[in-house]
Structures are given as C-alpha cells and as structure tokens.
Amino acid sequence: MQKRLLLGHPQLAITIGRLCQQLIENHQNFENTVLLGLQPRGIFLAERIKEKLLELTNSNIQLGYLDATFYRDDFRRRDNPVRANETKIDFLVENKKVVLIDDVFFTGRTVRAALDAMHAFGRPSKVELLVLVKRKYSSHLPIFPDYVGKQVNTIESQRVLVEWKHQKGVEEDNVWLINKED
Q1: Which DSSP string corresponds to 44-92?
Q2: Rounded-to-10 torsion of CA 127, 133, 134, 136
Q3: Euclidean distance between CA atoms 101 and 115, whole angstroms
Q4: Inter-axis angle of helices 42-57 and 9-27, nearest 10
Q5: Which of 57, 126, 128, 153 fits a 20 to 30 Å CA distance from 139?
C-alpha cells in the first residue's frame, strides 16, 4: 500500500481556519445556523469546525451528528449488514440554515442520503455542504460542496484517509491519498 501526504498538521489547521472564515462571511452571527456532522467520520471535522468558530466568533453554534445509513440507496445491496451509527440531534432544523459537514466527498450518495435523513428533524430554510477533501471526477449525482478544503485528482483505485490526532495510535492530524493494492 502506497500513501502520499495531502495535508499535514500545519496545512490542515490552516485549511480548517480558512473554511471557518468562509462560514463567518456567509453566516455573520450564526444566530439561525446549525452544524450537522455526517457519521461516521464527518463528526470529527464538525467538532473541529465548531471549536474554531467558537474561538473566532464567540458563538456557541448547535452541533448534531447525523447518520444516513438506512437512507442510502445501496443499503440493501450489501453482502454484509451495515451497522448504523448514532444520530444525535437535540434540536429541530425547521427554518434553520444547516451546514452539513463531511470529511471526504466522493460520489455524492452519502450526502443525498443525509438530505433525506435530515428531513426527519424538520425542513431547513437552506442547506450547505462543507467538506475537507473533494475527490474530483468521481461524482455520481449533481451535488456539489459549497465549501471545500482541498480538491484532489483521484482514480477509482485510490482512497482518501483523514486521520485526527485524538484517534487511537494517531500522533497528529493528516490527510493521506492511499493507493489500494490490487
């Protein structure tokens, strides 16, 4: 397995800061804005975004975790049953501006499923998508992120791995491009 570093610790921190600045420009006081991290891996980025926004604006923005497992179009087509993650949203999204947050944007299918799952918590006034890494040329649906940390040219046999330092065995934040072995 070959892997290449896409974003190391200092660049990743700068990228998260830039994404937060873009959110601040579009949401001024965050009075009517909520953040939803997509399970399983988008929640780590969502927590970082919330922390940085609190530091920059002193706004305590509501954060929830959304699992879209049962809304996926390939849910029943898998050989092994998929284990769902926790959905933790203790607020309504009715008439709110929602920022969906995920670590890697690949085909768009997870985001489509998340849009369906989110409607169980109300109808938002607006939905935006923030991703740390967007894989170019891989979209299957006409869904495009509003905020992108880094765009990467990839082929089908590659994957993007985001590591956060609080995870077991990880010393610092990194984003890797991994070539899968044949």
Answers
A1: HHHHHHHHHHHHHH----EEEEE--GGG-TTGGG-SSPPPPPPPB--S-
A2: 170
A3: 12
A4: 60
A5: 126
| Secondary structure letter of residue 38 according to DSSP | E
Please report the pLDDT score of residue 82 as a whole number.
Answer: 67
Q: How far is CA 42 from the centre of its chain?
A: 4
Q: Which residues pair with 64 in a beta bridge?
A: 36
Instruction: Show me where the domains of the chain are located.
Output: 11-72+83-152
What integer pLDDT is reported at residue 28 of this predicted model?
Answer: 81
Class of domain 11-72+83-152: alpha beta
Ranges of the chain whose pLDDT falls below 70 = 73-82, 182
CB 6 within 8 A of CB 152: yes
Q: Given this model, what pLDDT does residue 71 score?
A: 84
pTM: 0.92
pLDDT in tens, 102-153: 999 999 999 999 999 999 999 999 999 999 999 998 888 899 999 999 999 9
